[in-house]
Amino acid sequence: MLVALVLAVVPTAALAVDDPYRDQQWALDRIGVDQAWETGSRGDGVIVAVVDTGVDLEHPDLRERFLRDPTGEVVGLDLVAGGAPQDEHGHGTLVAGVIAATADNGVGVAGVAPNARLLPIRVLDEVGSGEGTNVDTAIRWAVDQGAHVVNLSLESVKAGGNGTSAPGAPTDAVRYAWERGVVVVAAAGNSAGVPTEYPLDSPVLLVGAVDRDDRIAEFSAGVREDALLAPGVDIVSTWCRAGDAARCEPGTHTYGMAEGTSFAAPHVSGAIALLLAAGHSPQEAVGRLRASAVDLGPPGPDPEHGHGRIDVAAALATDLATAQMALPEALPEPPPPDPAPSPEEATPQALPAPSPQATPSPPDDGEPQVVELPVDRPPGPHTTPGLLHLVAAACVGITLATWSAVARRQV
What we know:
Blueprint: E1 3-8, H1 26-30, H2 33-37, E2 47-52, E3 77-78, H3 91-100, E4 117-122, H4 132-144, E5 149-152, E6 154-158, H5 171-178, E7 183-187, E8 205-210, E9 228-231, E10 235-239, E11 254-258, H6 261-277, H7 282-292, H8 312-315, E12 387-392, E13 399-403
Parallel strand pairs: 2-4, 2-5, 3-4, 5-7, 7-8, 8-9
Antiparallel strand pairs: 1-12, 6-13, 10-11
């Protein structure tokens, strides 16, 4: 099973003054981010854990967003190789930018919650594969570090034919998070018609993808009545590859365009951050997103569209009657989260030993072609749009957690 991601150079267009590629971020307009910011909420004080391939720790649009310890080091975790959770693939950097890229800094793009703090956790390697058990560890570690939201733009994949079993979705860790007041947002997946492995009584917030016309993306999978939808097509965000590089390289800070439920989920994570920063409880934040979602199917929640496409401006409206989160009666109301540690007070715990890594299958599409987008200037009038097609992370071994992106070929 191969999963692929397409990233393209941003085409020349009218450019915003403060964030050069903001005009390309149609998704922020669709979910009402600018109106949401007018309420005064930009995610201040909220920590969002990005459980992924790591994040480019020096990207100019992200480096001010990380939670840091008293020495100034980024608080994060690398369960693949130990050390700093530096992205070697690019997927986690894309996800992080959707959530919290710094706004109004004259560079690149803006995130949904541009004042939130990022807590990067690397569970996938340079080709986008890793151990499912590390996802469980990552969620629990993020909660214990003071995260308020955990973004999972990945899915558990089981190997077949060898009689082995796999842990699948990190259900216990999701429940551990919710019971401590932490919302776990998960991409529903990109294998259309394949149901999610999260059980119905899980407090996970599943997210499917829609396109520019508010239609369910053809790749979007795993949606059910309790899910939400968010933009997941032609999403422009931070990235970290250039030229013909097969992996992210130090000092390479670029931007790309991608699609998949991987990039729908962080829109919801950012929206939750805005609601939490506005003073709403986790239960209220999820309830408000569901109650205010734009219904795209039959009246009310349905198995194909869930509650509908998020509208964060409507969710923040003071006159919205908050709907209760659809959870089993046995699941307790989460307690209020502990106060978020300030960057000066945050102290990471000791790193657990990395899990043995599965071996991914090799890419089958040859060398990717990449065109760099500089961070210090927009594309000039003669810039030619470029295309990158990358194949990564095959299903090898017992269980792999692999990023939820989908190929889209352009002509």
